[in-house]
Amino acid sequence: MTSADGASRWAVEARGLGKCFRRRRAVQDFSVRIPAGAVCGLVGPNGAGKSTLLGMAARIIRPTEGSLRIFGSPVDDPAGLADTAFLAQDKPLFPQFTVEETLRLGRELNPRWDQEAAERIVRSGKLPLGARVGSLSGGQRARVALALAFGKRPRLLLLDEPMAELDPLAAHEIGGLLLAEAAEQGTTVVMSSHRLADVATMCDHLVAVAGGRVRLAGETDELLAAHRLVTGVHLTEGVPAEIARHTVVESRTTGRQLTALIRPHGPVEGDWKTVEPSLEEVLLGYMRSPAAPPLLTAAARVDGPHDQEAAGSHGQEQEDEEVTA
Length: 325
Ligand SMILES: Nc1ncnc2c1ncn2[C@@H]1O[C@H](COP(=O)(O)OP(=O)(O)OP(=O)(O)O)[C@@H](O)[C@H]1O
What we know:
Layout: E1 10-21, E2 24-35, E3 39-43, H1 50-57, E4 65-70, E5 73-74, E6 84-87, H2 99-109, H3 115-124, H4 138-151, E7 156-160, H5 168-185, E8 188-192, H6 196-202, E9 205-210, E10 213-219, H7 220-225, E11 228-233, H8 241-244, E12 247-254, E13 257-263, E14 273-275, H9 279-288, E15 295-296, E16 321-322
The protein binds adenosine-5'-triphosphate.
């Protein structure tokens, strides 16, 4: 779908996307949209397919099946190449280069290079331009890598575990820098992370994957509002009927105490305490319960109400539920 000014509303649009490495299916039946302008967290356990998804969007891994569009154009359209920047997990930089030489390389390789933005990012960390990259701390190297990425002026910035090796202080600083620069440049950000607290504070959208399939996708607020954490005393075996009538993502009993993560289909009857769960509680619930049905908000679904191209789309959307909360 395109907006009135001709730009695509969707930064990323995957339909039935799949990737097979020899006989191993890393991603399957993946149908999700991420709107332009979102800061989207990509979460899931080790081996879930996060790096493979980012690699396909970054054009370094070729999908085996399905379609993937970036700002409305097929991912393999060379015209879109300059629109995307990808920062791999190991943040490949040349250790012998100085910060200044690294930025110069960025300028020479990228026709749309924005030296002012790149220098602003480096200077705000008080990094000396003459320092060798190999002598910098992990946080400082992350800053140089982000300067290189934002210097490209990408419309879509793909980050694989950008804070993985940073201490909490450096992660906070780099997270703030990332959000400020994304807002300044209007960049859509998709970042994989195992740090759920960072995802909760930084991301307005979320895609959770497990076993190469989407488990949750959409606006973080809407996804949270669609769930309730139910607790109470339960003396018999199994999930009580008044809870089982809702979609139960996960239920656990500790002694006499039952805790259930549910997607309510109306009020929860009986003597149960219900609260809105934290993002961490929702994500852990889905990770621990691979059989729980996935949930995609209307905006994340490729057959959502804004879709004009849904005919013939395939994927797991047939079995998903819509968020009604
Ligand atoms: N080049 C490859 N060749 C073969 N198998 C691969 C390759 N890359 C990834 N895989 C497999 O695909 C699956 C998904 O891997 P991927 O790296 O995308 O997961 P991830 O969610 O990024 O994991 P992590 O959180 O550990 O980084 C895994 O089973 C992995 O072993």
